[in-house]
Structures are given as C-alpha cells and as structure tokens.
Amino acid sequence: MAGGPGKEGVDPFEADFNMGLAQPLSRSVRLNGFATCLRLEEVYWRILERIAEANQCTVNAVLSYVDREVHLRHGGVKNFSGLIRVVCVVYLLGTQVTR
Questions:
Q1: DSSP code for 19
Q2: Quick one: which of 2, 3, 16, 37 is 20 to 30 A from 26 by CA?
Q3: Helix (H) or strand (E) segment spanning residue 89
Q4: pTM of the model
Q5: What is the domain extent for residue 79?
Q6: 8 within a domain of the structure (yes/no)
Q7: Phi, psi at residue 50, to the nearest 5°?
Q8: What is the enclosing helix (H) or strand (E) of 71?
Q9: Is residue 7 in some structural domain?
C-alpha cells in the first residue's frame, strides 16, 4: 500500500499474514462464577493471555475482572465480546490512547 507516488506505506495485510489469527474461537469461561461461552478471534485470545501473564493470573480472572468492573462502573455492557476486543487493543496501544 503506497501513500502516493514516491512514498512508501505500511502494508497492513502482509503476504505471510496468518489468517488463523482472524478465525473465531469459542471458549467456555466463568465470569464471576457464571459459566458462559465467549467467541473471539484467535488474536484476541492471545492478547488476553499476555494480559493474564502480565497480571500473574488466568484469562478467566482477567475476564471476570472486566465483567465486574463494567457492571460496577457502568451498569453493564450490551456487547461484552466487543468490550473485550477494545480492552485488548487499548492494552496493546498503551499510552498512545487518549482518554
């Protein structure tokens, strides 16, 4: 992808792009004691594993924390999987995200 004549850009879809990362994967999880199923693309499960490792806990613990906090702070959310995707992106962007 080029930024115009004579300019080089960044190709967001590289030739060796791993399409497996875009495949949805459903996992059974427990959110604060309640069993449910969460469907996310593989790349988000990998990011959640990084978040869990950084916090020395499990992915279920991270998900339960987010679920609890969104209920306490905002009364819940209609699209929990969408919230988790945003949490993952914000984690990767770190201080680049403005509040």
A1: G
A2: 16
A3: helix 80-93
A4: 0.83
A5: 24-94
A6: no
A7: -65, -45
A8: helix 59-74
A9: no
